[in-house]
Amino acid sequence: MSDNKELPFWSFPLLLGMIYLIGGILWFIVSFDAPIPFPAGPDPIGSLVLVVVSVVFLAGVGPLRRKDRQGFAYIAVGMFLAGVLFALQLFIIATNFLGWILGFEDWLVWTLLSDVTPTVWLFLLALFIFGIARAIEGDGERGFTKHLLGDT
Amino acid sequence: MTDPLETFLPDEEEFDDDLDPQIVLADRRYEIIGEILCEVYEPGEEKWTLSDMLDSVLLSRYLGLPIFMVIMWAMFHFTFTASSVFMAMIEEGFILLGTITTQIPVPWLASLLTDGIIGGVGFIFVFLPPILFMYLSISILEDSGYLARAAFVMDRIMMKMGLHGRSFIPMLLGFGCSVPAIMAARTVDGESNRLTTILISPLMSCAARLPVYVLIAGVFFPDYAGTMVFMMYILGIVMAVFMALIFKKTILKEESSPLIMELPTYQTPTLHGSIRHAWDRGYLFLRKAGTYLLAGAMILWLLANTGPAGYGVASNESFVGIIGNLGAFIFAPQGFPWQIVAALIFGLLAKEIVVEAMGIIYSVQGEAAIGASLAAALSPLSALSLMVFVLLYTPCIATVGIIKSETGSWRWTGFSVAYQLGLAYLVSLLVVLVGGYFFL
Fold it and tell me: At B104, phi and psi to the nearest 5?
């Protein structure tokens, strides 16, 4: 594991978990008509899904603080879940775009922004943070990829 | 080195009455594997494979179930939302076809083709995309190795509740069709455990119910349609576990045994394999629509257009109207009009017929037109109650047949049908009563 004293590696799952947690909580509150500026329509279940993703990330903090490689598993599964939600939302955007192009009645008022849910921009943010984490940890002998894919 | 095969079979005294023979055999199998490994394998540095790593989180005691729920929700949200545009395409095609068939100069033939075949079977075809998308998702989960983990995650919860863990595999199959799910109950040990599995498997939401959910959720809960469909599937699991618990505590008492399964390693699903699985399922649906449902649509059209007074009577005086009105008073508390009651009665033959019948009885074509008819006939609460009733009542005549065949008893078959109808009625009534108390 990295010996970087300025920014311990466990701070990355903590950061990832916190942004998903805050995003999920705000989305949940907005889903019940709270007057908070938040770029998403109401979706209470969707917001709870973000909270679950955040819990997965946060569960990795403890093991990483103990320098237990188990923590990497939580980051990997968290990123995987966030990535799946992102990819599915992209597919949904593509199909809705198709409906808009074809001029179907239900898609006449469709806009791209209405489909850019927190699952999309939170994942892009998470990807950026994950990229920084990987850059710091490196892909060497004890790097992130080694931990994720095993020593095989 | 001793011959492992000589020592493989456990001694007779090892088969204690309190132990499941399968556990004894599994223990011995892994003992032998261990012995062989000790002799031929030199342990090196500890290895941590990708499968081990994923399992440590996906099978986690606390996170396993929430992650399973997230994946399920994502699947249904994707299924509903992504398929909408393809449904609209098919619908536009049938509406176009309908405008042509209405021009046929023979009125009864025009009505049969437009209201009966296009309004009935054509409308059913509209639901092919969500079925394909759902099976594509299930196939990806299955091929990746996650579905076996889902059974493992659920097994732990079921065992905690004193239920038979092995029952969850047939229950998972029930997401596709209740018939193979009930047949898969053969793998469950013990007569009582097997019967419990047979009785609860039909409560898992099969593919045939999906068109009803998609239609109603799309009309009454457009902003949460995917979530509503997901909730129906979760309610099916919850009700199945709940009923299993009741059966185990009352009429089908038997000790539960643990689930022993070897989890496959994770694999990347192939696009070809996943599409092939989804298409196989879609083809079955198309074949059913082109045969049984087509015949059903023609019979339904005849019954909806003829009555004791002959052909061309008003719909509420037709045979379908008479049948629907006979049962309408029973469903008055749920707020179901006779048209819906008639559709539910015909739905006993196959769940797809519920949607088909709505198209024929309301004499309209297309999701939007049927949606408008439903919106005028039902309140959102009644619509939710209808979804719950469709989820819980007897899936189809084929399921009843397979229950008879697997139990070999008319008594258990009758009990299965009766308890499902009773449960569906009670829970749908509860939805209206509780929902009415809180939201009206």
Answer: -65, 130
Closest approach of B165 to chain A, Cα-based (Å): 25
Q: How far off is chain A from B86, nearest CA to CA, in Å?
A: 8
Pairwise CB contact (< 8 Å): B73 & A70: no
The DSSP annotation for B312-340 comes to: T--GGGSHHHHHHHHHHTTTTTTT--HHH
Domain locations in chain A?
11-149
Residue ranges of domains in chain B? 4-47, 64-439
**Chain-chain contact of B92 with A41 (C-beta, under 8 angstroms):** no
Its ipTM equals 0.88
Examine the pLDDT at A135 and tell me if it is beyond 80. Answer: no
**What is the rounded CA–CA span in Å between residue A91 and residue A96?**
9
Q: Which two tokens stand for residue B175?
A: 């997401």
B96-103: long-range contacts, CB 8 A cutoff, minimum separation 24: B97/B122, B98/B122, B98/B365, B98/B366
Whole-number pLDDT of residue A2: 46
Cα separation, A122 vs A19, in Å, equals 8
Residue B48 has pLDDT above 70, yes or no: no
Q: Summarize pLDDT for A76-119 with one digit per residue, the tens.
A: 899 999 999 999 999 999 999 999 999 888 888 888 888 899 99
Q: What residues of A are in contact with residue B81 (Cβ under 8 Å)?
A: 92, 95-96
